[in-house]
Design a protein that fits this description.
Blueprint (H helix, E strand, L loop, with lengths): L34 H25 L5 H10 L20 H8 L1 H4 L1 H13 L3 H5 L3 H12 L6 E3 L1 H7 L6 E4 L2 E6 L2 E7 L4 H5 L6 E5 L2 E2 L5 H8 L6 E7 L5 E7 L1 E4 L3 E3 L14 E5 L6 H14 L4 E5 L8 H9 L5 E8 L4 E6 L9 E6 L6 H11 L3 E5 L7 E7 L5 E10 L15 E2 L13 H10 L44
Helix pairs in contact: 8-10, 12-13
Length: 502
C-alpha cells in the first residue's frame, strides 16, 4: 500500500486548517443525525477535500521529491513513476482549475478524445485496432521536429540496440547505415550469419519479416533485425545490381572487437609489412584499451606509419571517441559542442599519446558517421593525418538516451558538434583530402582502391595523375606534426549515440 504524505495549506477556511478534521460521533440514544451534524459533516468534507487538493499540489511541486525523481530520470537515472508534471499556482482557490486548463495532462487530453471517436466511428475498424495509437502519436510529434536523430524506441528494442556498446550482441552480424532514407548494409562481419547467408555490402534492406522498412529510423531497423540467438529473420534485400532477394538469416551471438589489426596487400597483391593497418568498427568503452595493445605491437615491430580505417564506422560513445582520438594528438581541441542555448563545450586532449609519433592516413567513406567523423576531422585539423576515400555521412549531432517511465527510451538530440576549426558536420560531412570512389563490386573483386592509394601515399608512390580512372583525387595538404593548437582543458560528459550494428 502506498502512502500519500501531504501538508495542509498555511491558511484558508474557518478554524485551524492545520488540525486534523474529526467527524463527531452520533449522540447516544439518537434516532439519527441532527441537521447540524449533517451540515458540519458536509463542511468538514469540503474543507478536507480542499486541503487535500492543495496538499497533493505541494507533494508534486518541482522542488520536492517528485521534482528530484524527474530530474534524475532526465539525467539517465531511474525513470519517474508519476506521468505528468504539475506546476503549482499562486492563485489559491484557482489551483485545481489552472491544472485542468494549463497542465500537461489537459494539453494532450484531446488525443484521448480522438482515439475514442476513431475507435467508435472509423469506417475501417480493423485498421484502427491494428494501429498502435500511442506510438503513432509519439512518432507524429517526433516527425514534426524534422530531426532524423531524435527517435522513440520501446524498452525491448532499446535493450537490443544498446548491447553492442559492450562488444557483443545477438543478431545477424552486419553494420548498417541510413542512406537517403534507406537502410543499407555497410558490411557483413567475417564469418557472421549475415555473410554466410549471402548478405553483401551495399544491400538495401527493403523489408524485415514482410514489413516494409520505408520510413524507418536507423535505430528502429537495428532493434527489429536484432533478436535472440537461434531465431530467424527474413530480409528482402536489393543488391547493388538491382536484383531483389529474400534471405533468411539465423541470428547468433556476435562478438565484435571494436579495433582490429588485419593483414593487407598492395595493388599488386603483395603483403604489406612496412605499414600498420587498424580497423576501428565503432567506439565503445573497450576501444582505447584495444587500440593501445595494437599500438604497442606496431611499435615493437618498428612500424612508423599507420592506416586507420573508419569506413562504415557508425560512431558510438563520445568519451571513447575523444580518448581514442587523443592517442594520436599531442594536446589540442578534439571536438567543439554547441548546446541548445548556444553555449560551447570544448573537448580537449592532454599532452602525450601512444600514437603521436606515427604518420597517419585515415580511410573514410559515406558510411563513416558521428564518432568516426569526429576522429577524422580532428586528425585532419591538427595536421596529423591525410583523409582518403569519400565524404562522410554528416551526422554532427550528439544524442543521449532518456529512459521513460515505462522503460522505453527517447533518443534526443541535445547538441551539435563542430570540428576543432569550427566547421559544421551535420548535413555536410567530412570531405577527404584525396577522393577515391570504390565501384559497387570493388570489395567483392578484392580491389580496395582506397586502401591501395593509402599504401602508395605513405610509401611516397602516389601520383594523382596516374591513378585509376575510378578516382577524382586532389593533392593533399602538407601534413605537419607541429600545427597542433593549444586550448583550455575541459572534462567531457559521456554521452551515447545511436548504434547501428545488427
Amino acid at each position: 500500500m502506498s502512502e500519500l504524505r501531504w501538508e495542509p495549506p498555511p491558511s484558508g477556511g474557518d478554524g485551524d486548517p492545520g488540525r486534523r478534521a474529526v467527524v463527531p460521533e452520533r449522540p447516544s440514544g439518537s434516532d439519527g443525525p441532527s441537521r447540524w451534524s449533517i451540515t458540519l459533516l458536509i463542511f468538514v468534507m469540503i474543507a478536507a477535500a480542499f486541503a487535500l487538493g492543495i496538499g497533493v499540489m505541494r507533494v508534486i511541486d518541482a522542488s520536492d521529491d517528485y521534482g528530484r525523481v524527474l530530474r534524475s530520470s532526465r539525467d539517465g537515472g531511474s525513470p519517474a513513476a508519476i506521468p505528468v508534471a504539475v506546476e503549482p499556482s499562486d492563485d489559491g482557490d484557482q489551483q485545481a482549475e489552472s491544472v485542468d486548463s494549463g497542465g500537461r495532462a489537459s494539453r494532450f487530453a484531446i488525443l484521448d478524445e480522438i482515439i475514442e471517436v476513431l475507435d467508435e466511428d472509423f469506417v475501417d475498424p480493423a485498421k484502427f485496432e491494428s494501429l498502435d495509437a500511442r506510438e503513432a502519436a509519439i512518432n507524429g510529434i517526433i516527425d514534426a521536429l524534422e530531426d532524423p536523430h531524435t527517435v522513440f524506441i520501446d524498452a525491448e528494442r532499446y535493450r537490443l540496440a544498446s548491447e553492442d556498446i559492450g562488444g557483443s550482441f545477438e543478431g545477424i552480424g552486419a553494420t548498417v547505415n541510413q542512406v537517403d532514407g534507406a537502410i543499407v548494409i555497410v558490411r557483413p562481419f567475417r564469418n557472421s550469419p549475415a555473410q554466410q547467408s549471402g548478405i553483401r555490402a551495399g544491400d538495401v534492406i527493403l523489408e524485415v519479416d514482410g514489413e516494409s522498412t520505408e520510413g524507418w529510423s536507423l535505430e528502429q531497423a537495428v532493434a527489429v533485425i536484432r533478436g535472440p540467438k537461434g531465431t530467424d529473420v527474413e530480409l528482402l534485400v536489393r543488391h547493388a545490381d538491382g536484383e531483389e532477394e529474400l534471405i533468411v538469416v539465423t541470428r547468433d551471438r556476435i562478438v565484435v572487437p571494436s579495433v582490429e589489426s588485419l593483414p593487407i596487400t598492395d595493388r599488386s597483391g603483395q603483403p604489406v609489412a612496412d605499414i600498420g593497418y587498424i580497423l576501428i568498427t565503432q567506439f565503445t568503452e573497450a576501444t582505447r584499451g584495444e587500440l593501445l595493445e595494437l599500438l604497442d605491437g606496431a611499435r615493437n615491430a618498428g612500424l612508423t606509419q599507420l592506416i586507420i580505417d573508419v569506413r562504415g564506422n557508425p560512431g558510438g560513445l563520445l568519451n571513447a571517441t575523444v580518448e581514442t582520438t587523443g592517442e594520436f594528438i599531442d594536446e589540442g581541441v578534439i571536438l567543439r559542442q554547441i548546446d541548445r542555448n548556444g553555449d560551447e563545450e570544448i573537448f580537449n586532449d592532454e599532452p602525450g599519446g601512444a600514437g603521436v609519433d606515427l604518420e597517419l592516413v585515415v580511410l573514410i567513406n559515406e558510411h563513416s558517421a558521428s564518432g568516426s567523423e569526429v576522429m577524422a576531422a580532428a586528425l585532419r585539423d591538427h595536421g596529423r593525418a591525410v583523409l582518403i576515400g569519400t565524404t562522410t555521412t554528416g551526422k554532427g549531432t550528439v544524442n543521449v538516451p532518456r529512459r521513460l517511465s515505462d522503460g522505453s527510451v527517447l533518443y534526443v538530440s541535445i547538441a551539435r558538434y563542430l570540428t576543432p576549426e569550427n566547421a559544421p558536420v551535420e548535413g555536410v560531412g567530412i570531405a577527404p583530402d584525396i577522393e577515391i570512389a570504390i565501384p559497387d563490386t570493388g570489395f567483392e573483386a578484392g580491389q580496395d582502391i582506397q586502401l591501395f592509394v593509402a599504401i602508395e601515399y605513405l610509401r611516397g608512390q602516389y601520383d594523382p595523375n596516374a591513378s585509376s580512372g575510378e578516382s577524382t583525387e586532389t593533392e593533399p595538404e602538407n601534413v605537419s606534426e607541429d600545427e597542433d593548437e593549444a586550448a583550455t582543458p575541459s572534462q567531457p560528459e559521456e554521452q551515447s549515440e545511436a548504434e547501428s550494428e545488427e
